[in-house]
Amino acid sequence: MLAAGWAGAFPLVSGLGPHRSWGLCAAAGYLAAAVAVLVLPRRWARAGSVAVALLGAVLVPLLVLLVGGQGQSEVAVIERSGELLLRHGTPYLAEPRTVAEYTPYLPGMALFGLPRALFGTDGWPARVAGDARLWCAAAFLGCLAAAAPPTRRRPGRPGRPGRPGRPGRHSASAALRATVTGRLPAALPVAALVASPVVALPLCVSGVDLPLTGLCVLALALAGRARPVAAGWALALACALKWTAWPAVAVVVALLAATTGRRAALRAAVTAVAGTAALVLPSALRSPGPLLQQVFAFPTGRGDLPTPAGSPLPGRLLADLGPVGWYAAVALLLLAGAAVARSLVSRPPRDTRTAADRLALGLALAFLLAPAGRFGYLALPALLLLLPRLAHLPLLPLLPLLARPRRLPLLPRAHAPRPHAPRPRTPRPHAPQVVPAP
Fold first, then answer.
1. Which residue from 50, 54, 216, 407 has the least number of CB within 10 angstroms?
2. What is the mean pLDDT of residues 42-62?
3. Residue 299 C-alpha from the chain's centroid
4. What is the pTM of this model?
């Protein structure tokens, strides 16, 4: 009901058309999910309500917005940057005249706009297939799936009598039932989080921050498994999307140094820096001025045009006081960053949950104290706080149905091997006691 009230407020208070459309659909979906909890049987109530919420808050509004061609301005910016990258080798316009012509992202974000440049806009199938939101959502879910550990196949599974080593039909069906009924409830928290307004709203209207969130989660999960090179590549991809992902490098390096060793931490740092440079430098060398102006100066309020990110956060309120207030906000931002960095040195995180909490704290302070920001930016720290607690990173069970079942006693009782009786122990003969003669 709380989510339904939150979504129902958007048609009343929001001035953006995509937000109002999502609010109407999502409010109905959340209400239907609340009714499903009361109507469905108890064993299916939770799964049914989550499915109804996913349908009403994610699938239906996303389809409505895709077919209608509605979305936030970020979607058009990403798609235009992909077309510019394909044609000119750089996603930035040389002389932007309006805010809509700015590209406040690093060159890696233009990759999500390449499908639009390839599919075009002729007909609604091409419009839907090339929409950047779908590819951002696919990257987010793919990162969560990659964060799940590989399942280990245990040898010696029981099979049908008379044919050892090959599972029979009854064994396969029972294994599938055990997988569905045993592991599916573990994915309900993650599915509920996707259906919540924290993920459903940005997924439907823009989807810009979802790939960044997924890559940060994947990097933390890989670092928790002591895979520094893979974690470094995940960090490189995240840092090539937005520079707000750069603090994740320090957190992952601190986690690896505390759990795996300094050599592993150095390998992850070198991989992250080299990968980011390889992805960013070609566009940076081709248009260095537009990159600095649009990626760094414009989002912080120092560009030629004012940024539309004007939520009344502490940093923004300080920056509105003039140059002195802007420098004060930047000073507070640097002090907060130094405090978080000192905590990484003095008390480094030793598991993925603690590392995610430290990264969420640093990003929340950065968004609050930045000279320009939006309330929507805080969704990234919120997801970093929630995902490890819902899915117990790095054991993220997003795809439980595709995993192999565990070893189960699938044989009938009549054919089950009988336990061997313990062998009786023979008493050890004692040595004869010698009685001394009188």
1. 407
2. 88
3. 23
4. 0.78
